[in-house]
Write the structure tokens for this entry.
Amino acid sequence: MISVEEHRSRVRDVVGTRPVAHRALADCAGLVLAEDIGAGVSLPPFDNSAMDGYAVSSADVAMAKAGSPVVLPVEGDIPAGLTDVPALRQGTALRIMTGAPVPEGADSVVMVEHTDGGERRVTISAAVEAGTHIRRAGEDVRAGTVVLRAGTVLGPAQLGLASAVGVDRLPVFEPPRVLVVSTGTELVHPPRPLRHGQIYESNSVMLVAALRSLGCHVETIRCVADDVATFRAAVEPKLAGTDLVVTSGGVSAGAYEVVKDALAGVGVSFGKVAMQPGGPQGCGRWQGVPVVTLPGNPVSVLVSFEVFVRPAVLAALGHANPERTRVPARLTETLTSPKGKRQFRRGYYTREEGEVAGVVAPKGGPGSHLLASLAEANCLIVLDEETVEAPKDSTVEVLLL
Ligand SMILES: Nc1nc2c(c(=O)[nH]1)N[C@H]1C(S)=C(S)[C@@H](COP(=O)(O)OP(=O)(O)OC[C@H]3O[C@@H](n4cnc5c(N)ncnc54)[C@H](O)[C@@H]3O)O[C@H]1N2
Ligand code: MOO
Ligand SMILES: [Mg+2]
């Protein structure tokens, strides 16, 4: 039996690191930036108006008040996007819009609300200080400086910033193409009718959802019968276009362990990990393609995914911290755990406003077939290898899902 940590590091080594690809910004959301990005332009690129109003020289409107306004001739318009901007003659005004370049000779903008809105002549009823409503070139970003650091997870704001400094593609760790294969002669695609002895397939659905949430491209082969020739014929032709294969089922100690029987001799090793659920595990390479084989019980599949596959895929994608958040929580009931194994129990974690630690209520028993309780859970309770009993009201560690 190997430890959880040992298998985690094997899976991580097998999955490796993804290559870097340059992708259009629209395809980068959620991915990790592979290199520092410098600004090609300053932000703003030029002094521009923060308001719709009139560009003036503050000296010309210094005496303007509500009761005694100043009237200036308006010599033209500066809409946003105007590239040939006239200079302001002293003693006049230019009508200017938000985002438009401030003309030479102007040192401030009077909001249209403080004027009569005139087109030929404008009556200004408030003075402005020099600099009012002008957004200075470079006050946000200076050209040539690094705006996004390697390792940044690209969300909407980071992608917007990249575009604002003139970038249309970014170097990111390329998401893997993952092939999910669920095995079991008993498995049936819903909604086909079930015969006695058959069950509806659910593991591939969980794995696809979990992998897509990490940004992976996923293809599925569902309900492969427990027959080595059938398994090979279904999966082998797909290996060429695949970066990672994740299988479910067929890895334990029985007579029809299709995944084990098909892959044990070709570079994938199998064994037991000291955890519950998720004991039987395997990983390795098949024709050079990384393979992680998960046990078939539905809870075992999702727990194994959380413990082994998710951190390995996130690390491959360049995430500095690929782990779930761990928090302490007070148990609402006593739990028991097998000595020598790390147990992961489903739980529902809550924390009241103002409380330091939260509370966790176990959901369902330890059985790895109890899918309904998994669907009610928002965390995994971790009971370490030494723990045989965690009493009610004791503090345990939970992983927030
Ligand atoms: N003699 C032993 N028997 C078993 C051991 C053991 O150590 N000695 N380990 C048990 C544990 S723990 C697990 S976990 C399972 C793992 O078995 P397999 O990986 O070979 O998985 P299967 O036998 O194919 O299936 C197990 C179980 O899960 C259901 N299943 C499988 N695939 C799906 C799916 N895609 N959707 C829904 N349900 C699925 C399947 O019908 C079985 O009930 O082995 C124990 N046995
Ligand atoms: O280790 Mo198995 O995954 O409990 O059912
Ligand atoms: Mg089996």
Observations:
- Residues 23-40+150-173 form a domain with the Molybdopterin biosynthesis moea protein, domain 2 fold (CATH 3.90.105.10).
- The longest strand covers residues 70-78.
- Helices lie at 4-15, 156-164, 203-213, 228-235, 258-263, 298-316, 371-376.
